[in-house]
């Protein structure tokens, strides 16, 4: 039963070739223009080159714009293979919302409560990584208080411990909660900053807790630099 559920979800997660151009246009043209010219989001790129294969992106989470902003930093040839992980209980409330998330955001929806799960989310996401997909995770588990980072849940630790060959890229998002506050539907141009950190690597055998703690520390460190020093290397 579990195996069939995983296969079904992975089939749904694969993007038909006809939609690759749509996703490229949405995130490399449309959303990149919205973030850059309308919202005024500043991109600060990592010093290290972006990995060419599967990646686990992790970021703090305060706005529905977060997933779209992260998709704009994914290399063009990997957009159709990159999936934001979203909550089934929120984004699956209606067939239209569910369709939009799966087809326009390229998201994979998972249940946050055990009672509603057909398959263990970690097993599903593990299978996606094994098939060469990339994931966008928000380890806090939900949108938190604006501008405040909650403790990370252990999902990133479980996945990275199973795949030490896949880099974890930390991303700090600052200010997007002002552009689309929780409970609002209208985007307002208040600016913001996206800081992409250098990839984190973990040796085989690193504990789930150690990975989770280092991942949170990496994003908190970028937040501290932005908050206190107020001086980050200029984006290219």
What does this structure look like?
The protein has 236 residues and is an alpha/beta fold. The chain has a single domain (2-229), classed as 3-Layer(aba) Sandwich (Glycerol-3-phosphate (1)-acyltransferase). The chain has nine helices and seven strands. The protein has helices spanning 2-13, 17-39, 65-71, 88-91, 95-103, 121-130, 155-162, 176-179, 208-229, and strands spanning 41-44, 56-59, 82-87, 108-110, 134-137, 168-174, 192-196. Strands 1-7-6-2-5-3-4 form a seven-stranded mixed sheet, with helices on both faces. It is globular.
List keywords for this structure.
236 residues; Glycerol-3-phosphate (1)-acyltransferase; seven-stranded mixed sheet; 7 strands; 14% strand
Order of helices and strands: HHEEHEHHEHEHEHEH
CATH class: Alpha Beta
What fraction of the residues are assigned to beta strands by DSSP? 5-15%
What is the fold named in CATH at topology level? Glycerol-3-phosphate (1)-acyltransferase
Main sheet makeup: 7 strands, mixed
Distance between the termini: 49 Å
Number of strands: 7
How many distinct helices? 9
- Helix/strand/pairing category: alpha/beta
Count of spatially separate domains: 1
Quickly give the CATH architecture.
3-Layer(aba) Sandwich
User: What is the rounded Rg?
Assistant: 17 Å
Helix content: 40-55%
Mean pLDDT across all residues, rounded? 86
Shape: globular
């Amino acid at each position: 039963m579990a195996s069939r559920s995983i296969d079904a979800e992975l089939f749904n997660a694969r993007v038909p070739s006809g939609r690759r151009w749509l996703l490229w246009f949405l995130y490399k043209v449309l959303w990149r223009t919205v973030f850059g010219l309308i919202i005024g989001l500043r991109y600060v790129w990592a010093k290290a080159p972006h990995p060419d294969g599967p990646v686990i992106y992790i970021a703090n989470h305060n706005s529905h714009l977060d997933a779209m902003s992260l998709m704009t930093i994914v290399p063009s040839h990997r957009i159709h293979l990159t999936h934001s992980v979203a909550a089934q209980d929120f984004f699956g409330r209606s067939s239209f919302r569910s369709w939009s998330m799966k087809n326009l955001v390229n998201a994979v929806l998972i249940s946050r409560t055990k009672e509603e799960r057909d398959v263990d989310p970690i097993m599903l996401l593990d299978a996606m990584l094994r098939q060469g997909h990339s994931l966008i995770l928000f380890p806090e588990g939900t949108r938190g208080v604006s501008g405040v980072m909650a403790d990370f849940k252990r999902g990133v630790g479980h996945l990275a411990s199973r795949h030490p060959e896949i880099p974890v890229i930390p991303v700090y998002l600052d200010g997007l909660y002002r552009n689309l506050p929780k409970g609002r539907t209208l985007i307002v141009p208040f600016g913001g900053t996206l800081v992409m950190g250098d990839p984190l690597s973990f040796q085989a055998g690193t504990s789930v807790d150690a990975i989770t703690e280092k991942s949170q520390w990496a994003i908190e460190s970028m937040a501290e630099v932005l908050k206190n020093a107020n001086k980050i290397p200029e984006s290219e």
